[in-house]
Specification:
Length: 387
C-alpha cells in the first residue's frame, strides 16, 4: 500500500488554548499520534506542515521517527496544504492522504479504506452520519429545524491522487477560501466519496476535547508503565578549593577529579534516568574521550537525559540521590541541591530527594580517597502498543 502523507500542523489552535499540536496527549505530543500511524501504515514520505519557525518543535515532537520532513505553511489551511503538496516527491498517480494534526486518534483501518476508495473515485474522506437532531438559531433562540437526512460529519485524512488534487487547486480561481480539499476537487468536477469514519477520530477544538480524548485513550490497555532506573558514580579527590555536587558549588579544601566538572551526584542521576528509559549510560552520550566535554557542566548531561525521556513520551515522577562521603558536610547545602535538581528537571521540590551518608571510615570513601553517589529515578512511559 504505497501512499504519501501530509499532516497540516500550522494552525494556532486558539480555541483549544493554543499550540494544541504540541500538547501532550496520552504521554506524547498530539502531532506524533497521527505521524506514527501514517508511517507505520506504509507512507513512502510524510510532509509535516508547520508554522514559520516551528521546525524545531516538530523535530522534538517526532524525535526518533524517520521518513518525514517539515514544510512551512501559510495563513490559511489551503496555503498549508499547497505547501505540503509542493514538498512531495511522489508521482502524480500516487495517493496522497491530507490529515489534520488536531485529529490524533487515526487508525490504519481508515487509511486502508481511503486508499481502496481511490480505485473508483477522484477523492475520498471518512465521515460519520449525523445522529443528533439539528436546529438553526439566532441569539440563542431556535428559528428552524434542520433535516439531518443525508448530512454527514466530515473527518480527515482526505485522500486524492497527487495529480488530481494539484490540478484542482490550480483550477481554483474563486476569492473564496475553500473549506477543505474535497470542496476543491468537487468544484473542478471530481467525484468524492465517503468511507466509514471513526468516532474516535475526533477533532481537538476546545479544551474539553482533550479530556475526552484522554478518556478514550484510558480505555486502551495499559497506557503507562512505571520504569525505575539506578545510577552510580565515583570520583577521586584532588587538589582544589571547591567541589560541584548536585549542581551546587560547595566550598571545600579539595575538588573531585573528572573530565567534566566531576559532579558525581548529577552523573549518577543522569545514569538513573537513562537507565529508566533503557538509553545506555552517560558515557554513551558524552564520551570522556571527547575533548568538547572537558570541564563541561553536568547540568547539560542531566537536561539531555530529561529531554530524551520527554521525547519518548515519558514523565519523571521522582528522583532520589545519595552522596557517600566523609567530607564535605552535605546537609547545609542539601536544600539548594534539591532546588537545583528540581529546576533542571522541571519537577516539584517534593519529588526531589538528596541525602548523604558516610561509611564510618571504611573503604575508599572512608579513607577520604574519593566520593561516591548513587541515584534512583522513577519514570512513567507509554506502554508498548499491542499489535
Amino acid at each position: 500500500m504505497t501512499f504519501s502523507g501530509i499532516i497540516v500542523a500550522a494552525g494556532s489552535g486558539s480555541r483549544a488554548g493554543g499550540d494544541k499540536q504540541w500538547r501532550i496527549l496520552g504521554g506524547k505530543p498530539v502531532l506524533r499520534w497521527s505521524a506514527e500511524v501514517l508511517l507505520k501504515a506504509g507512507a513512502a514520505e510524510l510532509v509535516v506542515v508547520v508554522a514559520p519557525g516551528a521546525q524545531d518543535r516538530a523535530a522534538q515532537a517526532l524525535a526518533g521517527l524517520t521518513g518525514w520532513r517539515a514544510a512551512t505553511g501559510g495563513d490559511a489551511r489551503a496555503d498549508s496544504v499547497r505547501a505540503g503538496l509542493d514538498a512531495l516527491t511522489c508521482p502524480p498517480d500516487q495517493p496522497v492522504l491530507i490529515h489534520d494534526a488536531a485529529r490524533p486518534l487515526l487508525s490504519a483501518a481508515i487509511v486502508e479504506r481511503l486508499i481502496a476508495a481511490l480505485e473508483t473515485a477522484d477523492g475520498a474522506l471518512p465521515a460519520l452520519a449525523v445522529a443528533d437532531s439539528l436546529r438553526r438559531a439566532e441569539d440563542g433562540v431556535v428559528t428552524e429545524v434542520v433535516d439531518r437526512e443525508g448530512l454527514w460529519r466530515a473527518q480527515t485524512p482526505q485522500a486524492f491522487r497527487r495529480g488530481v488534487i494539484e490540478a484542482a487547486y490550480a483550477a481554483w480561481t474563486d476569492a473564496e477560501i475553500p473549506a477543505d480539499e474535497a470542496m476543491v476537487v468537487r468544484r473542478s468536477g471530481g467525484r468524492v466519496v465517503l468511507v466509514p469514519g471513526d468516532p474516535r477520530l475526533m477533532k481537538l477544538t476546545f479544551p474539553e476535547d482533550f479530556a475526552m480524548a484522554e478518556t478514550l485513550l484510558s480505555q486502551d490497555a495499559p497506557r503507562y508503565q512505571t520504569r525505575i532506573g539506578s545510577g552510580y558514580d565515583v570520583h577521586r579527590w584532588g587538589a582544589g578549593g571547591s567541589v560541584w555536587l548536585c549542581g551546587i558549588e560547595v566550598p571545600h579544601d579539595q575538588t573531585l577529579i573528572g573530565h567534566s566538572d566531576a559532579d558525581a551526584g548529577l552523573h549518577a542521576l543522569t545514569d538513573a534516568l537513562l537507565g529508566a528509559i533503557a538509553a545506555g549510560d552517560i558515557g554513551d552520550h558524552f564520551p570522556p574521550t571527547d575533548p568538547k566535554w572537558k570541564g563541561a557542566s553536568s547540568d547539560r548531561f542531566l537536561i539531555h537525559a530529561a529531554e530524551l525521556t520527554a521525547q519518548r513520551g515519558g514523565r519523571i515522577v521522582n528522583v532520589d540521590v545519595t552522596l557517600i562521603c566523609e567530607r564535605p558536610k552535605v546537609k547545609p547545602h542539601r536544600q539548594a541541591m534539591r532546588e537545583r535538581i528540581a529546576a533542571l528537571l522541571d519537577l516539584p521540590l517534593e519529588a526531589v530527594s538528596v541525602k548523604a551518608t558516610t561509611t564510618e571510615g571504611l573503604g575508599f570513601t572512608g579513607r577520604g580517597e574519593g566520593l561516591a553517589a548513587q541515584a534512583v529515578a522513577t519514570v512513567e512511559l507509554p506502554a508498548p502498543q499491542r499489535e
